[in-house]
Amino acid sequence: MASDSLPSTLGELKKSGYRPIGVKQEMRRNLIRKLKAGETIFPGILGYDETVIPQVQNAILAQHDFLLLGLRGQAKTRLVRSLVHLLDDFIPVVQGSHINDDPLQPISKHARELVQRLGDETPIEWLPRERRYQEKLATPDVTIADLIGDVDPIKAMARKLDFSDEEVIHYGIIPRSNRGIFAINELPDLQPRIQVGLLNIMEEKDLQIRGFPIRIPLDLCIVYTANPEDYTNRGNIITPLKDRIDAQIITHYPQDLDEAAAITRQEAWTNRDGDDEGTVQVEIPELFREIVERVAFEARKSEYVDRNSGVSARMPITLLETVVAAAERRALASGESATTLRVVDLFTGATAITGKVELVYRGEQEGPQNVAQFLVGRAIREAFNSRFVPNYKPGREQKHSFSQFSQVIAWFEEDGRVLDVYDDMDNASYVAALSAVSDLPHIIDAQWPGVSPSERAALMEFVIEGLHQNYLITKMVGGRKAVYTDTVSHMMGQIDDDE
Question: Apex CA 326: angle with CA 321 and CA 329, to 5°?
Fold first, then answer.
């Protein structure tokens, strides 16, 4: 319904049959309606259907304020912002009100006096639900005035009002969120003395400005987000405030590769069609989407990465976008209109990893770039072994049989053959180089029948890299070039160099 077709005065509003309703009751009513209709409650939120979302729904049905607690990159803020879909399309407010006064239940002095003076002729306006959500990032410099408000001396002087007059108040973001949803992100970063200022709002749902006896009841749904790391590293949630938060809901990272890939597919910008003139078509094999997700999974359990800090779901998103850009750049330089992701592209995407993982001391010794390369390699190894090693158990170090690749390995052993792969190699040279490896095309055709020629070549490189990650062939990297060779030949070459 458009707002211009709604009542415009208090009298018209009364005739329409409107009745005031609290914001939490409104959210509960709309949630019940959506659940009965089988609608999607939180569009775009993936991986939480069996865990987090039911708990959020319980909190809303119970008309609770709640806290989302989880590591970075777990869609906490996105979930909180999705709550706006549980609000009505529009609500009536007294025109000119700073705190969204209900025309039938005005609470500010401005609105009360206006209704008393004009009666049924009081003008009203309709507030859309998008404007009923307010959000504040908690930082150490946030003040009580920012959140709740303060006395405005300039307004008092200009209007010749006493400082105890309600009209001189400059309202903060919380009262301006009245009759809506207010969210505080990273709550532990808020100084304890500022958190104390929230106690009265949480329990009595009213606010006080400085020492003046002004009490204004507020209608709010308050939601917080926090990172458990913050409880010890940067700040803390004071105990009285935690006691007043009705529910604490634990978020988590995607629990399996399919969930993770679905999130990345939804969020990553990979479709460049029609974006620019001369856009390159980049094919993304499903295997490569899986490897990108495995990089994040490997990082979350790596001995080089601080697990308490977490690895954001943004990492695989930016990694996929980066490797697509690397493939795009190569095709543009080669004058080709289409290309396919390659293993070499995955390694050039290290820039999307280094800034999104916190390293422990051992990782710092290795260096961020080396750790990123290691994580990509481990992801490729897990993807390779899960397909080609019978009864493979991830994370368990044991000897495996790779007899099916004996001809491939023998090809490298014969006369010290090498396979050169450049990150800017044109498609024809790339296919020709990989196809020359004995038995490699047959392995691909047996495992992935019917794939396109360019994807077939990318899968051949994947097999070669998988053998390298299992220490069956050697890989040497120099600049933009990767050279695969026989392990023994490589060792003998090093001995000769030393001599």
Answer: 120
Q: Please state, in angstroms and rounded to a whole number, the distance separating the CA atoms of residues 354 and 298.
A: 14
Q: Is 497 exposed, middle or buried (CB count within 10 Å of its CB: 0-12, 13-18, 19+)?
A: exposed
Backbone φ and ψ for 388, nearest 5 degrees, come out as: -115, -10
For the chain, state the CA radius of gyration: 30
Ranges of CATH 3.40.50.300 domains, the chain:
3-250
CA dihedral sign, ordered 67, 187, 301, 260: positive
CB-based contact 405:467 (threshold 8 Å): yes
| 169: DSSP letter | E
* Those residues with Cβ within 8 angstroms of residue 366's Cβ, 6 or more apart along the chain or in another chain: 304, 359, 374
Name the β-bridge partners of 247. 66
pLDDT band at 494, cuts 50/70/90? very low
Give CA–CA dist 431/95, Å, rounded. 69
251 neighbors 69 (Cβ within 8 angstroms): yes
Q: How far is CA 372 from the centre of its chain?
A: 20
CA distance 184 to 405: 56
Residue type, 35: L
pLDDT tens, position by position, 90-135: 999 999 999 999 999 998 888 999 999 999 999 999 999 999 999 9
CA distance linking residue 296 with residue 367, whole number of Å: 18
Token pair recorded at residue 64 = 């609770």
Cα distance between residue 291 and residue 305, in whole Å: 18
Among 172, 84, 174, 88, residue whose Cα is nearest residue 133: 84
φ and ψ of 396, to 5 deg: -105, 120
484 beta partners: 419, 475
Burial of 193 (0-12, 13-18, 19+ CB in 10 A): exposed
Q: Say how far apart CA 188 and CA 139 lie, in whole Å.
A: 9
d(CA 371, CA 305): 9
C-alpha dist (Å) from residue 339 to 316, 430, 479: 21, 11, 22
- Report domain 3-250's class: alpha beta
**Can you name the residues that pair with 48 across neighbouring β-strands?**
none
- Rounded to whole angstroms, how far apart are CA atoms 361 and 262? 33
pTM beyond cutoff 0.90: no
Torsion over CA: 323, 326, 328, 334 (sign): negative
Looking at this protein, which amino acid is placed at residue 455? E
DSSP annotation of 65 reads -
pLDDT, tens digit, 9 for 90 and up, residues 382-434: 999 999 988 777 766 656 778 899 999 999 988 778 999 988 899 999 999 99
Q: What's the chain's length in residues?
A: 499
List CB contacts of 394: < 8 A, sequence separation 6 or more. Answer: 382, 385, 386
